[in-house]
Amino acid sequence: MLKTLLSQLGQYKKTAIATPLLSILEVFMEILIPIAMASIIDDGIEKGNMNHVILCCVLMFGMAGLSLLFGILAGKTSAYASTGFACNLRDRMFSHIQTFSFHNIDKFSTAGLVTRMTTDVTNLQNAFQMVIKMGTRAPIQLICALLMAMFINFKLSMIFVVAILVLGSILALIVSRAMPAFTAVFDRYDELNASVQENVSGIRVVKAFVREEHERSKFTKAAEKIYEMFIKAESIVALNSPVMMFVVYSCILGLSWMGARMIVGGSLTTGELTSLLAYIMNILMSLMMLSMIFVMLSLSMASARRIAEVLEEQADLVSPAQAETVIPDGSVEFEHVFFAYGKGKPVLSDINVRIQAGETIGILGGTGSAKSSFVNLISRLYDVQQGCVKVGGKDVRTYDLETLRNEVSVVLQKNVLFSGTILENLRWGDKNATKEDCIRACKMACADEFITQFPEGYETYIEQGGTNVSGGQKQRICIARALLKKPKILVLDDSTSAVDTATDARIRRAFREEIPDTTKFIIAQRISSIQDADRILVLDNGRIDAFDTHENLLAGNGIYQEVYHSQTQGGGDFDQNGGEA
Q1: Are 305 and 360 spatial neighbours (Cβ–Cβ below 8 Å)?
Q2: CB 77 within 8 A of CB 19
Q3: Coil, strand or helix at 483
Q4: What is the pTM of this model?
Q5: Beta strands of 371-452 (E only): which ranges?
Q6: Distance CA 362, CA 563 (A)
């Protein structure tokens, strides 16, 4: 895990190394100050030597100045290194997520990924900054102060050793109890973020059903649960401060009592006791810093594991070493294909079909009949468990993924538009497309007719999620975007469900006339959307029930007949004469 995380330091390695070096120099300067202070008392004040006092004061001022300078530089380099580290982590995580297949993404919730890239990275950033600065300073200061105390008076320095052992044991116990508590808290954060995301994305439904109070109640319960868990975790960590203060005051009292007796006995000077008191503060400050580091680490270890999980997740769909980069045509073939999500039962079983380039294939089936799963295998959004899917006569697993997905254009069931202008959204299909190319694609998708009615036309700004356009308009923009790729295979996954039948017919006619060589797969619930297809594939519970023309299916397939009659007995589709959902 540490190797995975630290590999993201990148260009900030030098500043990450410079920080502890500067911190060490800062400590060395601080450690010398009590020696000069003792010399002022013993060799200056008590002997009446003012020149020595002035010399020691100048030295102390110089050492304090250097310590301050090194501290400032260490603070700057640690801030630069930690923020850069966090930036690299977020960038790497985002880039890595882009390589994930749908199967990889299914392992992490959207809210979980957001939490990892925000809260978790911030926790790790703060911990990293503390470790490279205070994590070096504290142990070095502790060791140096302890050695100097032993050099001054070995017997009295044993008080420090006992304090370190006692405090170290208690801190280890606190951290061991706190880490599991913080780990549980961050799992709850994912649930809380998921609740917020679900509420915001579905706010129209919430308001339509007047469920604001229900959503508030659900969120409050989730927030209160995190509150309770944080109180439990923080109450464990809070023990650190009173324990620390108890040890500090115990050490000061013990040192003062024993030191005073030794001064009276003549085995210790006043200056040496002053130095020991300064060193005890150095030691205890070091212990306090170490305790803060341990607390921060206990908080950040859960975050570190969650980030490492994402970075170490291996994409299960990758291009082969000697990948094919040319797809000859849009022919598609399924040979004894079995497919399941994870370790569940197969959703597609023994699928065998052969489709020629340029054919239009309709796909019909009830809910859960694996229509979307079928087309997802063509562009290799998932891999089959058995058998193979061929495009252009070659197994899709032999192609370069980018090449394959550029030639297989998919309009998914859930249409997504991104914030930006209509033109910018269209150019997702082809970043180099001219405005004329975009207009042509929109005319084929029957989108030009409503885009030109907007005051700003193709420069109309689309709000996040496409909330300022209707469902049918969104679908047609997405179809136009897919057409701009000029694919060999076009997949419409129920992508005209919000479009009236008249417009749907015009889109299909444009496909026949404008892209006759493109193989087209049309998943639809309406018979009218697929009855003109060259052949229609009827799926039932993940198996092929029939694969034939509209006429033959209507004459001999029970499922097709049932769907057809249920849609036509009422006099046809409700919007046959136009209109838009």
Answers
A1: no
A2: yes
A3: helix
A4: 0.67
A5: 386-391, 394-395, 408-411, 420-421
A6: 14
